[in-house]
Amino acid sequence: MDKKEKFIITGLAGQRKLTGKLRVKGAKNAVLKVLSSAPLFLNDIKLNNVPEIGDVDCLEKIISRCGIEFIRNKRGQRTVKVGKRVGSEIDVDLAQKMRASIVLTGPLLARTGRVVFPFPGGCVIGKRPIDFFLDGFSRLGAKIKKRGEVFDLIAPPNGLRGASLFLKYPSVTNTETLMMAAVLADGQTIIKNCALEPETISLGEFLIDSGARISGLGTATIVINGSKKLLRSKKIYQTPPDRIEAGSFLILAALVGKDIKIESCRSEELTALLEILQEAGLKIDIEKNSLRVSGQQSKFKAINIKTHEYPGFPTDLQAPLAVFLTQCHGQSMIFETIFENRLGYLETLHRMEAEVKILDAHRAMIFGPNKLKAQEVESPDLRAGLAYVLAGIIAKGKTIVHNVHYIDRGYEDIDNRLKEIGVKIERIEDL
Ligand code: EPU
Question: Is 284 in the pocket of ligand 1 (CB under 6 A)?
């Protein structure tokens, strides 16, 4: 059971007051995949810059039930100890808490010739089926059975076989899962219409560094020539900075930053957001690894956004950006193209006195600017939860955000880090 906690935020009523530095932590959606790759290895893996977040804890629990051990040398560091025996079963209860657990199915099937897993759970952002995964595994030669609530996949006696795969959609986790399954398969696998996300590239580079034969990372076609189990050199995986956290901090700085510097980020991965914020009128000092918002800012203009696969505007920044749009002058439009249920949080922003019109499951209009008013709200998932924190910071009055465990799934120690730049935020037990 997740610990019940809430945030109490005393809002700034729109005043530009925050000053200081925010250092971006390691990318959740990169590290989860590298941890999931453990079954492909014969020896230990070492990682640095691991964000200490709920999703990492949960995934480590899931993987350790397959016989792989995690040693936390110190905060942000891990040694993953992969022994000779690796189990094939993914814990049903834990997997139902976490969509990303699906990624582990590829490495387990490749390593053990079998994987048993439930339909994965996770955020409430739409249907999120697993048909692309099952289809890919079946083309790699696996037999698929459904037994009660679990899927039971069995590879051919000599292991998975290379195949030609076309992804109906450039799904991030699907690209990563099938790429990892193919690493130990017999022969060549060609995956077309792959995800181009930086986290997928980071995983691929890590695998190549460990002996996998993969080419085409960062392009729509990835080719994998199957090899033996991987052997990691002493090189430590350095988790890249989280571009969604960096983007969310930038949005906060745009809203109420007097002088905020965001450090340890990769600005080139944030182009879509930077373009939009600059189009709205935000002045940003952009360096390769830092972003700064300071000085006088003019009024922001309304803008339209459409979420898209990388390098387009990320769906994971859609809710935080909506908070920014409430402060822009005129009518903005949000078009969520990736998930079918990722606008629900707008009802809550509306309760905070944002002027919002939800047109359908994918589109909404925001009319601004409107002064937001504090409310008692419940995080539905991690990204919308963080958007409520941002809304609470700019609003007038005390906002209470329940279900903080969702926010903790993706953002390390967020309250203490925000306190350092002047945010008045308290974490207390939610009785
Ligand atoms: N889809 C299918 N069938 C499948 C798989 C996906 O129809 O078998 C559909 C989904 O329903 C969705 C679309 O494909 O409509 C895109 O989903 P995708 O598979 O790309 O998303 P994902 O891989 O499950 C990852 C991130 C998400 C991020 C999306 C889009 C991880 C662990 N998760 O999800 O991150 O929003 O890509 O960039 O990498 C988050 O961090 O909060 C988060 C939700």
Answer: no
Cis peptide bond prior to 198, omega within 30° of 0: no
Question: Going by C-beta distance under 8 Å and a sequence separation of 6 or more, which residues neighbour residue 227?
Answer: 183, 184, 211, 212, 213
> What is the domain range of residue 190?
32-227
Read off the pLDDT of residues 302-329 as tens digits, 9 standing for 90 and up: 999 999 999 999 999 999 999 999 999 9
Q: Is 171 in the pocket of ligand 1 (CB under 6 A)?
A: yes
**Burial class for 121, CB neighbours closer than 10 Å (0-12, 13-18, 19+):** middle
Q: Which residues does the annotation mark as catalytic?
A: 123
Check which CATH number belongs to the domain holding 178 and give it: 3.65.10.10
Distance 171 CA to ligand 1 centre (A): 6
pLDDT in tens, 98-154: 999 999 999 999 999 999 999 888 656 666 789 999 999 999 999 999 999 899 999
Considering the entire predicted model, what is its pTM? 0.97
Co-location of 213 and 305 in the same domain? no
- Cβ-in-10-Å burial (0-12, 13-18, 19+) of 283 comes to middle
For residue 324, give both structure tokens: 């920014």
What CA–CA distance (Å, rounded) separates 411 from 242?
10
In whole angstroms, give the CA distance from residue 121 to residue 280.
Answer: 37
